[in-house]
Amino acid sequence: MLSVRQIASEIVAREGGFVNDPNDPGGATNFGVTIHTMRGLGLDLDGDGDVDVADVRLMTADRATEIFIEHYYTRPGIDRLPEALQSSVFDMQVNAGAGAVRILQRLLRDMGFDIAVDGTIGPQTIAASQAAYAQAPDHLVDAYGIARRNFYYRLADRRPASRRYATRRDGGKGGWILRAEEFISPRYHLTDAEHRARVAAWG
């Protein structure tokens, strides 16, 4: 099993460098750390008294790794989930914040566990995830990855500006879908034809 630092380093590599896409509600981002996160943490890296795009440009991969470990893994309590789930939930926490935990909680509710869907990892979510993993150790991680993939598709259904992240211009799988499928067993990956059928209504 990869260490949390290895997982965080992979997330940083996956996120890439500086981006300031007007269609991305996260705003200016560097190594996956958004300007909103930096403002929340008070990271005035250039020391000019505010946190702006110039500070985002100064973000480094090492600093991003530390931010992810502390604020997206340890503080939310992802370390208290079954170890096999941690990589995918951690990656999604970086990508979607508390939405990562809500996806897990909805999945656990679908499996019959009576827990709140509040985006917070508390005793109920920990106990339910551990029980679910004990019941289905060969399937829970894939089920979470598939739920995550479905989340991306539904988000793009509702938000046309985000469809560019779910599908490429040529109709193939976009970055969001490929990212989710990194955590899903190959036998559950969508074929290119299945993906194209799923997004056909987008035009």
Helix residue percentage: 55-70%
Derived from helix and strand composition plus strand pairing, the structural class reads mainly alpha
Beta content comes to under 5%
- The SSE string, one letter per element, is HEEHHHHHHHHHH
Number of helices: 11
Tell me which oligomeric state these chains represent: single chain
Q: Can you give a write-up of this model?
A:
The chain starts with a helix and ends with a helix. Among the domains are: 75 residues, no CATH class; 61 residues, no CATH class. The mean pLDDT is 95. It is built from eleven helices and two strands, in the order H-E-E-H-H-H-H-H-H-H-H-H-H. The radius of gyration is 17 Å and the shape is globular. With 203 residues, the protein is mostly helical.
